[in-house]
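Shift notes (night). Ran Conserved hypothetical biopolymer transport protein ExbB while the centrifuge was going.
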Amino acid sequence: MFEIIQAAGWPIWPLLLASVIAVALIIERSVSLRRARVVPAGLLDKVLVDLRSHGASAEMINRVAAHSPLGRVLAAGLRNIGASRDVMKESIEETGRAVVHELERFLTTLGTIASVAPLLGLFGTVIGMIEIFASQGISGANTAQLAHGISLALYATGFGLVIAIPTMIFWRHFRRLIDDFVIDMEQQAIKLVEVAQGDRRG
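Came back to this:
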C-alpha cells in the first residue's frame, strides 16, 4: 500500500489528508448526533410534570437548557411562559435556529470533501499521465512501462472515489438525521406552547 502511495506521486497526499479529516468528522458527528443526546426521550414529559408541580423556576429552566439541544429549545419557551403565544413561539424559533446551526457543524466541510475528492483524484491522474508521456523517449514508447505508468496514475482517481463515496453517504445521512431531529423538536415545542397556553392538558 505504501509503495502504491509513493508511486502515485505527490497529488495523492492531499487525498490522504482529506481522508483523515473525513474520518475524524464522521466519527465526531456520529457521536454528537445520537438521538439520545439531541432529542432525549421523555424530556418533555418531565418538563411538563415539573411545570405543573413547581412552575417555571429559574433553576428548572437552567437545568433543562443544559440537558440537551432539545432542552435548550424547551427552555426558551419556559423563559417566556407568562408571555403570549407569539412571543413564546418566536423565542423558541430563534433558539431553534441556533441549535440547528450547531447540529450542522462540520457538515459543510464533510460535503466539500465528498465533492472535491474525485476532482483531486482526477487531478492526480492527469499529472501522472503528463509525467508518463513526458518521460517517453523520441524513439518510441515502451508499451509495458507505459501500461504500468498509466495504472499507477489511475490509483489517484480510484482513491479519490474511495474517499468521496462513503463521505457523501455519511453527509446525506447526517443531513437527514438533523431534519428528523428538527421536526421532532418542533412538535415537542408546539406541545409545550399549547400546554403552557392552556390549549391542551398534555
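The chain has one domain: 1-197. The chain has nine helices and no strands.
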